[in-house]
Structures are given as structure tokens and as C-alpha cells.
What does this fold into?
Amino acid sequence: MAINTPERIALFIDGANLYSAVKGLDFDIDYGKLRDHFAAQGRLIRAYYYTAIFERDDYSALRPLIDWLDFNGYHVISKPAKEVTDREGRRRVKGNMDIEIAVDMLRMAGHLDHMVLFSGDGDFRALVQAVQDKGVKVTVISTRKTSPPMLGEELRRQADVVIDLADMEDAVGRRARPANNFHDNEDD
It folds into this structure.
């Protein structure tokens, strides 16, 4: 008699990459719905959210989201964003979380059956292959429906499953709100 146990799943969300993708698709993520959607697919072991925070005067615009995620089942991994000046004198913000995502995915590979990576960054191709070599199925969620596409071709080819974020809007999204609240009740 076979015992049918649910798949052990973890989410790895590249916050900056996901933000850019949904901004291009003109909707927002409902992180409660997102968590619940994947919890219904199997046994959700972890939901990681990675972001760099640019803090000025002890406040970041990301703080309310991070606090909500922290209190609602997500493990938030953050680090301070750094402002640097390049050789041409342009100011740039650095806050790449790729190493943190890679370390956590490799560390968790022996404890999971399925990893869901929310990023289209082609640099993750070798990482996806490494966890697949450990027997873990990898689903990549990003989009090709923005201009330019957010999903790197090499990552798309390596993933076991690719889901276009645009196709998940009904399951995990909510329409982006206008900048002012005057338009919130137009349909009422």
C-alpha cells in the first residue's frame, strides 16, 4: 500500500525582480493569496522573501510590506542597499540578493521536493541545475509578457516548469491602485 504524502514546497521570492515584473503587468501581488495558493499545492515548508532596503532616516517605503510578511508566514531576508558612484560619476543603488537566494536554495535542497523561484534572472540557471541535480523539481515564475521580457531564456530552458506571472493574476494578484484615491470608487 503506497502512502501518498504531499510534496514539500518552498518559495524563493526575489523581491526586486517580482516587483519589476508585476509593475510591468500592472497588478500587485496579494501575498496572503500567494502563500495560500502554494500551501494548497502541497506542504509549504518555507516562503522566503529577499530584498535590499534603502533606509533613510530609519524609514523605508518597503517597511510596511516587510512587517506584514514577517507576521504572516514569510521569512524575510534583507540587507541594506548601498548607494555607490560609478566611474562616470553616476549614483547607483546596489542591493543584489542573488547570493542569499542561492545559499538558501542549496541549503534547503535536501529538505524539499519542489522549489518555486520567483525571478526571471538568467544568472540563476546554474543554481536551478544544481538543485535539480539533488532531485528537487524547480518551477520558475516570471513573465515574458513585459517589454523587455523579465524571463531569461537560459533560465526558462533549465526550469522543470515555467509559469508566466501574468497567468497567475487571478490566483495571486490584485489590480494596482491609482496614485490618488479619487478613482478607487469609480465603478461604484
Notes: The helical segments are 15-25, 31-39, 63-71, 98-108, 125-133, 153-158, 169-172. The chain has one domain: 8-176. Residues 8-176 form a domain with the Rossmann fold fold (CATH 3.40.50.1010).
